[in-house]
Amino acid sequence: PAWDRMFAYGFYFFKRLTLAVVIVALSVQLIATILILRPVIARNRLEKSIATTLRDALPADATLYAFDLDVALKTYLPGMQILNLWERAYPSFSDGSYFLFNEPRLRQQWEGHNPMINWERANETRQLSEFRQLPDGWTLYRIKAAEK
What we know:
This protein is of the alpha/beta class and 148 residues long.
């Protein structure tokens, strides 16, 4: 009988231990999933917020020079011409178009590369007037001919 009790108690103990391990593992996975997805969801909300603002603020056939957010904006604003500042250094920027940029955030990483080259060229050759402040430090500028 003692052996039977110990044997039965052992199974009971391992059953409870297994249940505890499964609960802990699921809890850790749930917490890790939440922590991993938070930046992704925050980025998605930022992209949607900026796209909604641009949809309301800009004409449907506008030309927008953008970097970093351009891929999402092409999805959310299909009728708008969105030109990527990374793909090439643009020799000129058309009057009446728009420039979406976050200079403080992008300067250090992209110094000497197309996004900053385009930003500096636009500031040198055109007049960028602030059109709208957007979340997370993004600014929308309207491109005008430089005043002489």
